[in-house]
Amino acid sequence: MHYMELGGAEMALLGLLQALDTSKVEVDLFINQHTGPLMAHIPPKINLLPEIPAYSAIERPLKDILLEGHLPIFLARLWSKWKYSKYLRSLQKEQQNEGSITHYVFDAVSPFLPSLKHLGHYDLAISFLDPPHIVQDKVDASIKMEWIHTDFSTVKTNKEVCGPRWAKNDYIVSISDAITEQFLRTFPELKKKIIVIENIISTDTIRKKADAFDVSEEMPHNNGEIHLLSIGRFSDQKNFDNIPDICRHLNSQLSTLSSQLKAKWYLIGFGAQEELIKQKIIECGMQEHVIILGKRENPYPYIKACDIYVQPSRYEGKSITVREAQILCKPVIITDYPSAHSQITNGTDGIICPMDNASIANSIMKLYEDVEMQQKIKHYLATHDYGLMSEVNKIYKILNIS
To answer: What is the four-CA torsion angle of 390, 187, 233, 346, rounded to 10 degrees?
Structure first.
């Protein structure tokens, strides 16, 4: 794994680690960079391997790694940036997406990373977050496997760079049928390698953490307020920059029901678009209605306290936070991104709505008014398993253990 910041892939990794039975398998975990609040949540049963300085230099600021003496990796990363920018210039503007830059970086730095073969021979080595270079180039293992979390209909992928790497895997793990379908449209030749293992979440852990503390001071429930919540990195993917305008539309609609009725929309996360979101909040006059809470190591009490969880993303693989909200029996609204229907059955365990701002606001309004629909969704969520702990058996099957 790259690091353990607050993100969906990191949470999915923790779910897998919790599910693995260490009476059946011994598990070593190698993390390039020992940073992020989720480092503290790695299960004690897992053997965390020491950080190696060269690996920690792969994604940290260039100035820092140069000062620390990682000159070969510094130069390799500069070279990868030049190659990637050259590739971007070959694309049409609307196709330019940074989804594949990591392959350029890892292609360039891999020759300068020390081998990990001194750790011994493994039955299975997993690259849990793309790209797979470290597992493929540096680890001695009988079976090599890579997880993909991305919806490839939304990312322009350089087949010449990424394809040969993915082809080296014994297995490619997709987190949903929809992700598999989109991946195979670009790489149909890899059909025999791909399998589906859905993200694993510990429902007991989430429910316990949801009761860890009271959030009433940060999310006070005043009369006439609807509490909405969205969680994710502040990036273009999550579409949080449109939340102020959606909230403005929603409050305008709510005012037709009652002058006292208002929506408050809380955002948990961090990222490059924070200033843009703040700017949009001011432009839309939503300073009292869209509240940025920032990073939260434990977001579950906030999910428990909200009325409706909203994921307005432009695209997703399969959102962990949506599943977490479902585990806590919250009505969920997501936008109709390409893989949305693999995440939610519309009208059964959540609502899928069109992606434009007015439609999102209208869907929130309709769900708020339809108490019967809210109760129907909550009942369905309470009676179905969204943790999917049994998915770990697919790994045991590959290893021929029961």
So the answer is: -60
Radius of gyration, alpha carbons of the chain: 22
DSSP bridge pairs for 70? none
pLDDT tens digits, 49-61: 999 999 999 999 9
d(CA 268, CA 262): 20
- The Cβ of residue 92 has, within 10 Å, a number of other Cβ atoms equal to 7
The phi-psi region of residue 388 (left if phi > 0; otherwise alpha if psi is between -120 and 50; otherwise beta) is left
Beta-carbon neighbour count of residue 82 at 10 Å? 12
- Give the separation between CA 191 and CA 242, rounded to whole angstroms: 37
Residue 267's DSSP bridge partners are 230, 292
CA distance 235 to 283: 19
CB 383 within 8 A of CB 203: no
Q: For residue 234, give both structure tokens.
A: 């502040």
- CA-CA distance, 336 to 377, in Å (whole number)? 18
User: The whole model's pTM is what?
Assistant: 0.81
C-beta separation of 51 from 18 below 8 A: no
Task: Give the E-state strand segments of 45-199 in sequence order.
Answer: 47-48, 122-127, 141-148, 171-174, 194-196
Q: Give the number of other CB atoms < 10 A from CB of residue 346.
A: 13
Q: What is the pLDDT of residues 229-247, one digit of tens each?
A: 999 999 999 999 999 999 9
Length of the chain: 402
